[in-house]
């Protein structure tokens, strides 16, 4: 049966690990309950995502503006990022895609269109206000389900999704290595991952400035090539990298 928002939640529930109970709350599935967030706080950037102001301007102003600063003038636009992620993940009708730290759902909605009515796109985030905004932007016909849960220790059973996307969030996680291992765990054999995260510049004065800025905002600054190496260590093949400003887009196949 083709998936719409009305039954997307039911399909998403079937992918959860045994013992995890998600309560439907205002249109999304909630595994965190009264917890303010999953895991320890990492700094200012993460806290801002839980406010009411940032989610209201995130998709149109906040993320594009900060992204342009981070990526530089030659980096992709937001629409370009969505297209790059969709292509790197090889999304096609019938697949299941997981959008980790989905925010207001810009990528999740696009993935829903790419996988079509027989597929499923799951947007996962720890912020209630972000998910509320994502639901405001959703169409009832979209094959999309939203899940409030831990992005580092994903609540899905092993080998349950065809694609994992995590754009502009890995550097804000308390344990990025655990998150990458979790991404690998939930991917089916042959599944793909696509990540956009920080990339510290190679010139030493710039590296020092990047590190200081990251520390002040609670964001980890990864070295160029570091994330690709971590994916290879986890068994990913066909790993690719592209850099723009202080960002890197890295992808690989499980």
TrEMBL record:
Q: Sorted alphabetically, which Gene3D superfamilies does this protein's record hold?
A: Vaccinia Virus protein VP39 (3.40.50.150)
Q: For this entry, list what GO says about its biological process.
A: methylation
Query: Which sequence ranges form a coiled-coil region, renumbered to this chain?
Result: none
Name of protein: Ubiquinone/menaquinone biosynthesis C-methylase UbiE
Q: Which UniProt keywords apply?
A: Methyltransferase, Transferase, Ubiquinone
User: Where is the Methyltransferase type domain positioned along the sequence?
Assistant: 98-194
Q: One Pfam family from the UniProt entry?
A: Methyltransf_11
Which GO terms of the molecular function aspect are on file? S-adenosylmethionine-dependent methyltransferase activity
Spell out the SUPFAM superfamilies in the cross-references.
S-adenosyl-L-methionine-dependent methyltransferases (SSF53335)
